[in-house]
């Protein structure tokens, strides 16, 4: 099979507070038919160019889709071409919140609607895809935004409030909590504003409630050996979903990123299984 040649366009989209969302569009070169939109949300300590994401979006574009990936505004990576995969803005990372990411995603969708005549995509056919924490963001946005047509979540969390009362008490006293990035050995600070956001926006950030309200087709994919986000999260999401419109796939013998690593060292059996499932889901 001859694959479509893929165009890639990189741009900066402004969110509602004026911050830049570093974004990539990938789409087939030929054809006049409007392409379905597929938007990817990366996860915690992630970015649009992490590991397998560029490969994944290239594959999705080759299948005849308009693939969109972006960095959340406060994900901590730089804005220059040379540091978009490095955490050079830990000050922003510390101030990030779930609501900010949800609003960032809304700004991406708004931009696509406002610029619908510049590119050959179908604004009436939007699939959200999210990995890990990004899966939670994609679930919330699908529930609150009727412009979304389909949802795919990979290794998704089922709840953002994953912190013990003891930790939250200490977090509030100190003002921040630190996590180590095992890949870069950076100590990454999370300010208590993250917890304040969870408290203030409890209803809006309720993933379990959101999945129960979604009426569009949903696919949940999770690695059975995921030690970062246990597969019980996927089972919880499925248990609350509309079973007539939701499919759950547990991939055996693989973990949180389906064997992919950063920097990308090539595809894996599990990742190919995931991509086949996504491609089949998008084609229906």
Structure description:
Helices cover 33% and strands 25% of the residues. The strands form 2 sheets. The protein has an 8-stranded mixed β-sheet with strand order 1-2-4-3-5-6-9-10, sandwiched between helices. A two-stranded antiparallel sheet has the order 7-8. The longest helix has 17 residues, at 98-114. Helix 3 (98-114) packs across helix 4, helix 4 (133-144) crosses helix 7 (207-213) and helix 7 (207-213) crosses helix 8. It has helices spanning 53-62, 90-95, 98-114, 133-144, 165-174, 193-200, 207-213, 232-240, 269-283; strands at 6-14, 20-28, 35-41, 66-70, 121-131, 150-154, 176-181, 186-191, 218-223, 246-251. The model has no long low-confidence stretch (mean pLDDT 96). The chain contains 9 helices and 10 strands. The chain has a single domain (6-161, 204-283), classed as Alpha/Beta hydrolase fold, catalytic domain (Rossmann fold, 3-Layer(aba) Sandwich). The chain is globular.
Strand content: 15-25%
pLDDT averaged residue by residue: 96
Structural class: alpha/beta
Q: Roughly how many Å is the radius of gyration? A: 18 Å
Tally of helical runs:
9
Total domains: 1
Helix percentage range: 25-40%
